[in-house]
């Protein structure tokens, strides 16, 4: 394990990235292998060097500004940046995908100059990625072998991944010239990067790419000097030595291509990196290969026409009527070839080409087991769903042809907003057209509205008869897709028209049913109205003490089991509390005074004196609750006490009495009442009231 001079190994950045190992130290940052704490994915974290961040605080803002642009770069030859944040010490860092490989710089140190074919291949990949970034206004500014990663792709071939897009630009804008020179990338910098105030665009990357190509061919950089000032002067004024000096097998045309790429004036360079790569391959005069491909059906051995061909993921053409296609100009290496046909399974394989070699490849495509469905429902613009997925819509005639359906059993659903869904199951047979007919029924609310509100009886009758009379056998439908194309399918029509008497009988049944429903609803409304309008007749006021036979009120029902009559005729005055409006003389009179001499009281107060023997416990409780909700606690207490006399074993009455005593402030009496409520639905609530009363009593 490498020694970590910055002490970041083992730290957790942004509460989710655990740094496990130091990977390398560059001119701008330190790279660590890290693991995401949530997804457990291995990532690469590059932290900006502390000396750069401390000496130039504005670098942090420029760093994140460029990071936003580089996150949007998604290219197979550019490393993918997934996150950017700050450490606890304020150092910016980038999170990138983890690549298993080595840099181009390490490759050159191990093996020296690369083969011409590999140089052309790497140059094409780098140029493609640079052109992609340049089209989005992003310039690398620090292209060098140390920022080019070599990884193995899915074909087993080495490919290039460009690192550190945009970081060099942030450093250039935010740091001084002294710090920029200390980065150690002057050997690949363009001349305009040394000119103060010079405009730097994508052509600066083309110059750096020319230096990288020079080094891949020869193993040396164009200017190898020890002094920084001498290096800057060479980039500005000197011509690079010929690559044939180090490698005689390099064609003379390559020297002209590199000279144009390393031109001092940006106007004299190539317009794009792709132009440089193409000119380099053409100058090498590499012998390319040719692929002659023939696609045929694995069963019939017939050529498959209009099959799409892809080479290394890119479209390369399609087969002709005989199933043949010739692809020229392929580089001598391994290529991934893919073939796609509408009626066959996808084919994929790897083909290796040699220089000036023509490879003939015969591809046998396995046919798909497909069939077709011809669906008729008699309703236009109805949606068709196959196994829960929308696959089409019916035309104006109510028909729809579903092609290329896999063989087997499928669930089909037909939906239309004005009709109830229709569902069915069909078995698709290979190479055949399966006829399928559905009958859609209008929704009940639409049928009711159009028949009995809007008066569209004839329209709905014709539509329902058409959907009900769809053909169900395969005799009336074509057997093949060719018949579908040549035979005209007439719109679905009623094959069994209903007679006039049958229509009249159906309409009569519906009218009769609706009439009965309407009469029932009207009767129910009248009954509710009469019940709400019937007044409650209060019991008559009797001025004499109640006798054993008291006329009952029509609206009051006597209890099922009454207590003895002696309890009902006892005067309630000793147990009642007089309201504040009654004078002391009236309260204390032993005998009842005449009606005209008594003070005027509320109707409920006058009634309770005469109807105490006839009202039930439930009625007393109801009246007591009404008084309690209105704030008349004295009247509520009288009603509850009378109800307790009628039914002394009812625990609910003691709960109601406790509420009145508690509201009046008589806590001891309320506690006694709550303690006697030991059963019924109010028992738990009564215990809660007891706890609150205990707390009140404990308070000073």
CATH topology name of the largest domain: Transferase(Phosphotransferase), domain 1
Q: Note the main sheet.
A: 6 strands, antiparallel
Share of residues in helices: 25-40%
What percentage of amino acids are in beta strands?
15-25%
What can you tell me about this protein's structure?
This protein is of the alpha+beta class. It has five domains: 12-97, 2-Layer Sandwich (Phosphorylase Kinase, domain 1), CATH 3.30.200; 103-284, Orthogonal Bundle (Transferase(Phosphotransferase), domain 1); 289-365, Carboxypeptidase-like, regulatory domain (Immunoglobulin-like), CATH 2.60.40.1120; 372-500, Carboxypeptidase-like, regulatory domain (Immunoglobulin-like, Sandwich); 603-698, Tetratricopeptide repeat domain (Serine Threonine Protein Phosphatase 5, Tetratricopeptide repeat, Alpha Horseshoe). Strands 1-2-3-4-6-5 form a six-stranded antiparallel sheet. Strands 12-11-14-15 form a four-stranded antiparallel sheet, with no helix packed on it. The radius of gyration is 49 Å and the shape is flat. The chain starts with 11 loop residues before the first strand and ends with a helix.
What is this structure, in a nutshell?
By secondary structure, this protein is an alpha+beta fold. The chain contains 22 helices and 23 strands.
Would you spell out the secondary-structure blueprint of this structure?
Elements: E1 12-13, E2 17-25, E3 29-36, E4 42-48, H1 50-55, H2 58-71, E5 81-86, E6 92-97, E7 101-103, H3 104-111, H4 116-134, E8 148-152, E9 158-162, H5 167-174, H6 177-181, H7 202-218, H8 228-237, H9 252-261, H10 273-284, E10 289-297, E11 308-311, E12 314-318, E13 324-330, E14 334-340, E15 347-352, E16 358-365, E17 370-376, E18 383-386, E19 389-393, E20 399-406, E21 408-416, E22 419-428, E23 433-437, H11 444-452, H12 457-468, H13 481-486, H14 500-533, H15 565-569, H16 584-588, H17 603-610, H18 617-629, H19 633-646, H20 651-664, H21 667-675, H22 683-698
Parallel strand pairs: 10-16, 17-23
Antiparallel strand pairs: 1-2, 2-3, 3-4, 4-6, 5-6, 7-8, 8-9, 10-13, 11-12, 11-14, 14-15, 17-20, 18-19, 18-21, 21-22
Helix pairs in contact: 2-5, 4-7, 4-10, 9-10, 18-19, 19-20, 20-21, 21-22
